[in-house]
């Protein structure tokens, strides 16, 4: 899977860190939410399109202003 977009909540503590990714394999799309950094828990949801993945990623991030997009 290739990461198309990645957001981070700005928290550097292991318990507080949150990441949301939009990923694709060229055929399908998924949104991955990660809690607690690389060794934390994650949830992955398959999406039928790029547009639906963007809607889900927005919903999972919520409205807190600390979220920022990480550029590759």
What is the compact description of this entry?
This protein is α+β, with helices and mostly antiparallel strands and 72 residues long. It contains 1 helix and 5 strands; from the N terminus they run ββββαβ.
Write structural notes for this entry.
There is one protein chain. By secondary structure, the protein is an alpha+beta fold. Helix content is 17%, strand content 42%. It contains one helix and five strands; from the N terminus they run ββββαβ. It has one helix at residues 50-61; strands at residues 2-8, 18-24, 29-35, 41-47, 68-69. It has a five-stranded antiparallel beta sheet with strand order 4-3-2-1-5, with helices on one face. β2 and β3 form a beta hairpin. The radius of gyration is 12 Å and the shape is globular. The chain starts with a strand and ends with a strand. The mean pLDDT is 94.
Q: What is Rg?
A: 12 Å
What proportion strand? 35-45%
Main sheet record: 5 strands, antiparallel
Low-confidence stretches: none
**Tally of individual helices:** 1
Principal-axis shape: globular
Helix content: 10-25%
- Cα separation of the termini: 15 Å
**Which structural class is indicated by helix and strand composition?**
alpha+beta
Major sheet strand order = 4-3-2-1-5
